Automatic annotation (TrEMBL):
InterPro entries, per the entry: HH_YbhG-like, UPF0194_transport
PANTHER family for this protein: EFFLUX SYSTEM COMPONENT YKNX-RELATED, UPF0194 MEMBRANE PROTEIN YBHG
Main location (coarse class): other
Domain YbhG-like alpha-helical hairpin: start-end pairs: 70-189
Name of the featured protein: HlyD family efflux transporter periplasmic adaptor subunit
Keywords, in A-Z order: Coiled coil
Protein location: Cell envelope
Keyword Coiled coil (UniProt): yes
The keyword Coiled coil is annotated on this UniProt entry: yes
Record-level GO cellular component terms: cell envelope
Record's signal peptide: none
Origin species: Agrilutibacter solisilvae
UniProt cross-references to Pfam families, sorted A to Z: HH_YBHG
Length: 319
């Protein structure tokens, strides 16, 4: 049987070993949410702000509205242009009117009559010119007039034939392309008009509204920033010695100030490029080391935690 001093010395050794055990691997960072920025679709005045900072919004809910006078006028002009192109296409597809064909036939008959008259005059004048009873220049003029009249007959014949054959398929294709282009432009203007009612693309919370009622932001300026997602995530900086022990899919415990129990999380991303540790993540020797940016997804249980809180993440099951 062991002596009492021996047992006591063994217990002291165990307690000493337990007290000297190293802390579990950990990394520091902050709580963050996925952010969605709503840019200004046009340089128009803000005429309504329908939400306030910190308010929860649902998908499709109106956040603010921009003045629509100019864009609405452009949309109406695009619609009118599309209607014009559709009517022009309908005219091409219908072909020439019967009245136009009748007019072309009448012009052909008139041209033929003038040609016969010019030919008859030339036929009468030529024998006189051969006997030098009239000037040669008069005979030449009459011959030229007869030839010109015949050319006018051929012109009238081709014009009538063009009308009778109808519109060329190439012109109809061009008309259809013009209609499609005008309709596409009208849709673009309609989309631009609808975007003046700035809505939330996802459910979330309004983080910031940089502009006030009556401001006129430039195109692309951030009108609102939303925090979206069912829960925040921890953006942490993994110290260089710990990098090989942290992997995607690994379980983690996230400690948040003001909460005694840690929140469960899962490593969802670890950057491969190192960076310098930010000032708020400096702990001991880590100040002189590189670190790797990582993200730890939290469960929906942490959905009400605010963004920006400092956190400490432990990887209890790191190999």
């Amino acid at each position: 049987m062991r002596s009492t001093p021996t047992i006591l010395s063994g217990l002291l050794a165990l307690l000493s070993a337990a007290g000297c055990s190293p802390p579990p691997p950990q990394a520091l960072g902050t709580l963050e949410y996925e952010r969605v920025t709503l840019p200004a679709p046009a340089a128009e005045r803000i005429v309504e702000i329908a939400v306030r900072e910190g308010q929860r919004v649902e998908r499709g809910q109106t956040v603010l509205r921009l003045e629509a006078v100019r864009v609405q006028a452009a949309a109406q002009a695009a619609d009118a242009q599309a209607r014009t192109q559709r009517e022009a296409l309908a005219e091409l597809e219908a072909g020439p009117r019967s009245e136009a064909i009748g007019q072309a036939r009448a012009q052909l008959v008139a041209a033929q009559a003038r040609a016969r008259d010019a030919a008859a005059y030339y036929a009468r004048l030529k024998p006189l010119g051969d006997r030098s009873l009239v000037a040669a220049s008069d005979v030449d003029s009459a011959g030229a007039a007869a030839a010109s009249a015949q050319a006018q007959v051929r012109v009238a014949q081709q014009a009538l034939l063009e009308l009778e054959r109808g519109t060329r398929t190439e012109r109809i294709a061009q008309g259809r392309a013009a209609v499609e282009a005008a309709q596409a432009q009208a849709r673009v203007q309609q989309v631009s008009l609808e975007k003046l009612d700035v809505t939330a693309p996802r459910a979330g919370r309004v983080d910031s509204l940089p502009f006030e009622l009556g401001d006129q932001p430039a195109v692309g300026a951030p009108l609102a920033v939303l925090l979206v997602g069912p829960a925040p995530y921890a953006r942490i900086y993994v110290p260089e010695p710990l990098r090989t022990r942290v992997r995607v899919g690994q379980a983690a415990r996230v400690f948040v100030p003001g909460h005694e129990a840690p929140f469960a999380g899962t490593v969802r991303m670890v950057r491969s490029e190192p960076t310098f540790t930010p000032y708020y993540a400096l702990t001991g020797k880590d100040a002189a080391r590189l670190s790797y940016l990582a993200e730890v997804a939290l469960t929906p249980k942490a959905g009400e935690l605010p963004a920006g809180l400092p956190v400490r993440v432990e990887f209890a099951d790191a190999p």
